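Input C-alpha cells:
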C-alpha cells in the first residue's frame, strides 16, 4: 500500500481531545508491532493513552480519519525529565519518513511544554536511535535517567523486566538516550547510531554473561 500513499497527504499534529477515540487502536498497533519484532514493550492501557491525548501530551499522524502514527510525552521526577515514548507507525505507512516527522513534532512538544527538562527515550529500535541522535540525544547509562520509581514501574509489563530487575535497574536491552537542554549539541555523523548500538550490545553481552 505504501507505493500509493503520498507522504504529504498525511498530517502530523499535536493530538486533540477528539483523537482519544483512537486510544484502543494505538494500543493494538504498539502491541502487535512488539510481538512481530519479538522485543519487549512497556504495555500501556487505552485509558493511559487516552489521558495523554486529552492532556495535550501526544502527537498523532492522520491519513484522512485513519490514525497511522503516534507518540507521547510524560514528565518524571517532578518535571526534571520528560520521556518521549510509544512511537509507532502503522505497518502500511512505514518508510515514508513518518517516524521522523512524528519524532520531530514530539520533540517540539516536549521542548514547548517542559523547556527546562532533560528529554530522554529508552529504546531497542535502531531507527529510533538514529532519529534521537539527530535531535541531539546522547546514549547514557540508566543512572543518568530519571530515578522516578513510577517511570521504571512502567517497565513491569515488558517481557525483559526480569533483566532490568536482575541488573538493579542499571541496564537492560533498551538503550537510554538523553537530550540535555544545557549541553551544546554533539557532533553526530551518519555512523554514530550504528557505533552506539554495537557498543551497547557488546556492553550488555559482557555484563549479562556475568
Ligand atoms: C521504527 C518505526 C517507528 C519507523 O517508522 P518509519 O515511519 O518507517 O520511519 P521513517 O520512514 O521516518 O525512517 C526513519 C529512519 O529510520 C530508518 N529506518 C526505518 N525503518 C527501519 C528499519 N526497519 N531498519 C533500519 N532502519 C530503518 C529509515 O531509513 C530512516 O533513516 P534515514 O532518515 O537515515 O533514511 C516503525 O518501523 C515502527 O512503528 N516500528 C514498530 C514500533 C517501534 O519499533 N517503535 C519504537 C519503539 S521505542
Amino acid at each position: 500500500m505504501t507505493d500509493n500513499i503520498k507522504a504529504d497527504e498525511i498530517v502530523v499534529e499535536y493530538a486533540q481531545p477528539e483523537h482519544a477515540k483512537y486510544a484502543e487502536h494505538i494500543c493494538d498497533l504498539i502491541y502487535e508491532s512488539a510481538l512481530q519484532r519479538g522485543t519487549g514493550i512497556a504495555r500501556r492501557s487505552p485509558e493511559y493513552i487516552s489521558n495523554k491525548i486529552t492532556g495535550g501530551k501526544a502527537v498523532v499522524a492522520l491519513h484522512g480519519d485513519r490514525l497511522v502514527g503516534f507518540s507521547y510525552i510524560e514528565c518524571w521526577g517532578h518535571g526534571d525529565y520528560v520521556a518521549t515514548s510509544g512511537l509507532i507507525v502503522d505497518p502500511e505507512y512505514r518508510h515514508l519518513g513518518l517516524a521522523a516527522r512524528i519524532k520531530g513534532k514530539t520533540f517540539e512538544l516536549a521542548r514547548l511544554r517542559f523547556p527546562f527538562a532533560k528529554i530522554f527515550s529508552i529504546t531497542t529500535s535502531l531507527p529510533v536511535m538514529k532519529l534521537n541522535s539527530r535531535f541531539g540525544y546522547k546514549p547514557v547509562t540508566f543512572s543518568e535517567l530519571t530515578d522516578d520509581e513510577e517511570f521504571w514501574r512502567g517497565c513491569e509489563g515488558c517481557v525483559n523486566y526480569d533483566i532490568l530487575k536482575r541488573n538493579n535497574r542499571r541496564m537492560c536491552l533498551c538503550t537510554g538516550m538523553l537530550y540535555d537542554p544545557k549541553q551544546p549539541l554533539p557532533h553526530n555523523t551518519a555512523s554514530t547510531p550504528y557505533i552506539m548500538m554495537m557498543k551497547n550490545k557488546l556492553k550488555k553481552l559482557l555484563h549479562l554473561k556475568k
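The longest helix spans residues 192-209. The chain has one domain: 2-209.
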